[in-house]
UniProtKB/TrEMBL annotation:
Domain Rhodopsin per the UniProt entry, residue ranges: 35-269
Identification of the protein by name: Rhodopsin domain-containing protein
Keywords: Membrane, Transmembrane, Transmembrane helix
Residue stretches of biased makeup (Basic and acidic residues): 344-356
Lineage of origin: Eukaryota, Fungi, Dikarya, Ascomycota, Pezizomycotina
Keyword Transmembrane: yes
Organism (species): Exophiala dermatitidis (strain ATCC 34100 / CBS 525.76 / NIH/UT8656) (Black yeast)
Domain of life: Eukaryota
Polar residues: bias regions: 297-308, 325-338
Coiled-coil stretches: none
């Protein structure tokens, strides 16, 4: 006796398509999470954006597992879904519950992007804009939950054939979808605002913006989901249309989480990671380092790499310590290294304490050698000549 296939793809049964796309989406999510853990944990850079991403991953895993179970009991099979028996009603209940998980996953993935912005800048104007965006995402999530739950139930959310309530339910999902797309566009605008006015070449700015702009590709999947939710789409086979809604949902969830992890990949990180050989990042605008150890030698990008001066000792007389201007007395001079960060606007953006890897670095290292011995010697010679 041949074994029953796990899924079938036909005009009356889309269970196979649902299984394939859900498994593919889940694999993308798992790979993205593993990459993020591999990059963040060894360097101890795990922050709130990573926590939010982890929450999105866990919720997506639960949501995908629920879809697998729904397919097991008959999701996608028109002959089962359109029945009003226990199996058909159970599928509709799980479908309704999955809507809430879908919204929760999207909210957490948006939170991961918003929290990433917080760790990339300390400028007050940026922080205000980011918190407004995060608040907007939170309001979107609460509004979406209320829209799909108030005056609705599992019998109305997945009703075959179409009834008037299905049209009203689609109107609610249309509002949810449009506001969802707007929040994704706001993230891209925020990335443009973040790099605007900073001293970076266009390639670097484009890299930063494109890393966030990849999330816009979730909008086509969202549009297709809304298209199949429309009761006027395939009205004679709503089971097929709603099965395709599940497929589009899984694509949007998987890609949305994967796009939230693009910003930890090397093409984006090389723009803001700490350059090799550079001095430690400092919270203040100016510091001094004393001793015979630094001088400007070469620079990489916008930061200067400092070389050793061990082969050039500094000898002078400590006239002030001895109470005399005799230039024959020996003492070691000192070097002062000052770091200038431009004006205050960029200083806040660069010197974030949340990470050793900044998104944008604009730093100039100045090495100033104070030749006090030479000055003292010159003054002593002038005095001796006058005498």
């Amino acid at each position: 006796m041949p074994l029953k296939p796990l899924g079938v793809i036909s005009s009356s049964n889309q269970s196979g398509l649902i299984l394939i796309l859900t498994a593919l989406s889940l694999s993308f999510i798992v790979v993205s999470f593993v990459i993020r853990v591999y990059i963040r944990v060894p360097t101890r850079l795990w922050k709130w954006d990573d926590n939010s991403f982890t929450a999105a991953t866990v919720l997506a895993f639960v949501q995908s597992s629920l879809v697998f179970y729904e397919v097991h009991i008959g999701l996608g099979d028109r002959s089962i879904v359109e029945r009003n028996d226990e199996a058909g009603n159970q599928i509709k209940k799980y479908y309704f519950a999955n809507d809430f998980l879908y919204l929760a996953v999207l909210f957490c993935s948006k939170g991961a992007v918003g929290c990433l912005f917080l760790r990339l800048t300390r400028q007050l104007g940026h922080l205000r804009a980011i918190w407004i965006i995060l608040g907007t995402c939170g309001a979107w999530f609460v509004l979406s939950i209320l829209l799909i739950s108030i005056g609705s139930s599992w019998t109305k959310a997945y009703h075959v054939p179409v009834i008037d309530m299905a049209t009203k339910q689609f109107g609610r999902w249309l509002v949810v979808g449009i506001t969802d797309a707007l929040t994704e566009a706001i993230f891209v605008l925020m990335s443009v605002f973040l790099v605007h006015g900073l001293r970076m070449n266009m390639v670097q700015k484009g890299t930063v913006v494109s890393a966030f702009a990849v999330r816009l590709l979730t909008i086509p999947a969202l549009a297709m989901r809304l298209y199949y939710l429309d009761p006027s789409t395939i009205p004679d086979n709503r089971s097929l249309a709603l099965s395709l809604v599940v497929v589009c949902t899984q694509i949007q969830v998987g890609y949305g989480i994967m796009a939230a992890s693009v910003t930890v990949l090397k093409p984006f990180m090389v723009v803001y990671e700490k350059p090799a050989g550079s001095t430690d990042y400092m919270s203040g605008g100016h510091t001094k380092q004393y001793g015979k150890h630094t001088m400007p030698s070469e620079h990489t990008g916008t930061s200067f790499q400092l070389k050793s001066m061990s082969g050039r000792p500094t000898d002078a007389a400590d006239a002030r310590a001895a109470g005399s201007t005799d230039p024959t007395q020996q003492y070691s001079g000192y070097n002062a290294t000052a770091t200038a960060h431009g004006h205050k606007k960029d200083d806040d953006s660069i010197n974030s304490q949340d990470s050793r890897r900044m998104i944008i670095e604009r730093k100039t290292d100045w090495s100033v050698r104070y030749e006090e011995a030479e000055s003292q010697k010159s003054n002593a010679s002038v005095v001796a000549g006058s005498v």
